[in-house]
Amino acid sequence: MSDRGTRTWRRATTEDAVALRDLERIASLTGLAHVFGELPYPDDDVLARWALLLDDPEVTVEVVEDDRGMVVLAAHDGATLRHLAVRPDYWSAGLGREGFLRAEAAGARRLWVLEANGRARGLYESLGWTPTGVTQECPWAPYPTEMEYAAP
């Protein structure tokens, strides 16, 4: 496990797209293997999505790094938490909660989460957010169900 000392958040730039994709990949492959199984990770599509998000002036992407790279990312706009990921060696260190609260303080009042992502749902529910009852299909194979959550 890497040093969990000082946590300095900074705004991500276009030069961070690959690192964002890589962090999201390791978090997804570790935490969502029960959903995506042996399917290949959609590296190119996820990288293209990060490039678009980083180029969108309404989206803020914030990160924390250690000597091995990114450990957490939080992407949000004025209304929605778009993405939150924590490197597995930092799970349970409070960084997911920090990223979530940063997005909430910036105005996020809704988010989408995989129905089968119990870890994330537990975090959101512990902070008072609840499912709205609205669902949609995830854009990545095998197209699991996503649930919308809203702030209290």
TrEMBL record:
Residues 7-152 form the N-acetyltransferase domain. It comes from the Bacteria. It holds the Pfam family Acetyltransf_1. Gene3D superfamilies: 3.40.630.30. PROSITE patterns: GNAT. InterPro entries: Acyl_CoA_acyltransferase (IPR016181), GNAT_dom (IPR000182). This is GNAT family N-acetyltransferase. It comes from Nocardioides cavernae.
